[in-house]
Amino acid sequence: MRGDGQPAVVVRGLSKRYGRVPILDSIDLTVSSGEVFALTGPNGAGKTTLIRCITGLAFPSSGEVTLMGRNVHEEGSRARATLGAVVEAPAKFYTRFTGAENLRLHARLASQGARGARVNDARIREVLALVELTRMADRRVGEYSLGQRQRLGVASAILAQPEVLILDEPTSGLDPLGIGLIHRIVSDHAASGGAVILSSHHLREIAAYAHTVGILAGGRLVDTVDLSARHSAFRFRVDDPSRAASIMSTLDFVNRATVRTPYAVAELRDEAFVPDVLARLAFEGVRVLEAAPDLFDLYEYYRERLEK
Ligand SMILES: Nc1ncnc2c1ncn2[C@@H]1O[C@H](COP(=O)(O)OP(=O)(O)OP(=O)(O)O)[C@@H](O)[C@H]1O
Question: Which InterPro entries match (predicted)?
Fold first, then answer.
């Protein structure tokens, strides 16, 4: 459909003040097609303000935002034609209309832009099924729970298969299965080539599926963590961690090997090399008691980063 790693969202030198109060300070970020970018940070850091600026709902004091190459604040409707978003939680719907009717209305409004042709009744049923609201499709939104409205919001955002999907705290108020559902939708959207920006406080969960995490604090993007580079670390519990690490560091598919007793930890070029590491350690007479992905602890990293 789209998505070739090209920049989909580009934010350059974005600052925002409310009156004299600076809220965002010189934000630069780029999100590519196929990428999930998760924005996190303490309450009041400026996440919602940044998302409002990126979606065109708020104007920056300086700097610019482009969506698929179109400036959001200068070519508003053309830029927004590439966008699906939920910025207010829960999204606003007509409570006297059913979920399906609301989505139909949403599609009709979108059809005045370039994307409406992509949406028909079959697509509406499809997105309702994706957010597991098939059973509620013909019930009035006034009867929906908060979490069901939240999921309907996500359904409306993905309805026209936008190139850019932006969700402000899409999982707040959802139960654990609902959170998993949204994560799957977001991952699938990126896998089919869409760019995704979302904000979340669920660090351990976003660490599992975001490609990049931007940490916003005091209106500044204090760190951008490339999680995809951290996914191929493995730890091996062995009888001799130092010897295992020195053996592993001679292998050309191991970028780096370190000791974290009782483990030897290897950053592999690709996780497909795990069996080769095991074979080599066995050949060298090192006993391996356990091998597991060495998951990056985003929560710990975040805590340390903000305490600096
Ligand atoms: N319309 C406004 N007028 C003045 N100040 C505002 C306005 N909107 C937001 N702010 C201020 O901007 C700062 C950032 O708010 P924002 O809602 O963007 O933070 P956030 O990171 O999304 O927080 P949370 O995690 O609590 O949702 C806060 O200090 C807030 O008080």
Answer: AAA+_ATPase, ABC_transporter-like_ATP-bd, ABC_transporter-like_CS, P-loop_NTPase
Question: What is d(CA 218, CA 236) in angstroms, rounded to the nearest whole number?
Answer: 39
Q: How far is the CA of 219 from the centre of ligand 1 (A)?
A: 10
ipTM value: 0.95
Could you tell me if the CB of 48 is within 6 A of ligand 1? Answer: yes
- What pLDDT does 207 receive? 84
- Angle subtended at Cα 43 by Cα 38 and Cα 47, rounded to the nearest 5 degrees: 40
pLDDT in tens, 137-194: 999 999 999 999 999 999 999 999 999 999 999 988 889 899 999 999 999 999 999 9
Which residue among 14, 16, 17, 18 has the greatest number of ligand 1 atoms within 8 angstroms of its CB, and so is best to mutate? Answer: 18
To the question of domain 7-228 being in CATH 3.40.50.300, the answer is: yes
Domain 231-297 has CATH 3.30.70.100: yes
**44 pocket-lining for ligand 1 (C-beta < 6 Å):** yes
Q: Model pTM?
A: 0.83
Where do the structural domains in the chain lie, given as residue ranges? 7-228, 231-297
Q: What is the distance in A from the centroid of ligand 1 to the CA of 224?
A: 21
pLDDT digits (tens, 9 = 90+) for 208-227: 889 999 999 999 999 998 88
Ligand 1 centre to CA of 47 (Å) is 8
Is residue 70 packed enough to be buried (19+ CB in 10 Å), middle (13-18) or exposed (0-12)?
A: middle
